[in-house]
């Protein structure tokens, strides 16, 4: 088992920021390597202040061989897409989808 789990966070809205900051503050065994957001200009200052890499495309996280786990905090209608892609890439996944209509896609 690895000493440190490298995490990627897809979505830097309210929940993405909360999860990112909680990982940084409270989980010594994890490191947020990258956050992806379709509007990176809106969260650039936040990402710079906490010292994380910011990208626009979620696929950059999904395809990064150094990332072990993915937090999916993007809009709900994208959860199944990114969950499936991350699973195929061999990532561990945290996704708080609660909408039953999206569960069928998984």
**Biggest sheet statistics:** 5 strands, parallel
Oligomeric composition of the shown chains = single chain
Order of helices and strands: EHEHEHEHEH
- CATH classification, class level: Alpha Beta
CATH homologous superfamily grouping: NAD(P)-binding Rossmann-like Domain
- Count the domains: 1
Q: Could you list some keywords that capture this structure?
A:
single chain, 106 residues, alpha/beta, Rossmann fold, five-stranded parallel beta sheet, 5 helices, 41% helix, 23% strand
Describe the structure.
Helices cover 41% and strands 23% of the residues. It has 106 residues and is α/β, with parallel strands linked by helices. Strands 3-2-1-4-5 form a five-stranded parallel sheet, with helices on both faces.
Produce a short descriptive summary.
By secondary structure, the protein is an alpha/beta fold. The protein contains five helices and five strands, in the order E-H-E-H-E-H-E-H-E-H. The longest helix is centred in the first third of the chain and has 13 residues, at 14-26.
């Amino acid at each position: 088992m690895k000493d440190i789990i490298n995490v990627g966070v897809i979505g830097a809205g309210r929940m993405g920021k909360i999860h990112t900051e909680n990982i940084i503050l409270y989980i010594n065994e994890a490191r947020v390597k990258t956050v992806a957001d379709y509007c990176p200009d809106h969260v650039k200052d936040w990402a710079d202040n906490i010292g994380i890499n910011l990208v626009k495309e979620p696929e950059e996280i999904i395809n990064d061989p150094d990332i072990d786990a993915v937090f999916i905090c993007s809009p709900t209608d994208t959860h199944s897409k990114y969950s499936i892609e991350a699973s195929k890439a061999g990532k561990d996944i945290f996704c708080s989808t609660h909408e039953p209509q999206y569960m069928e896609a998984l």
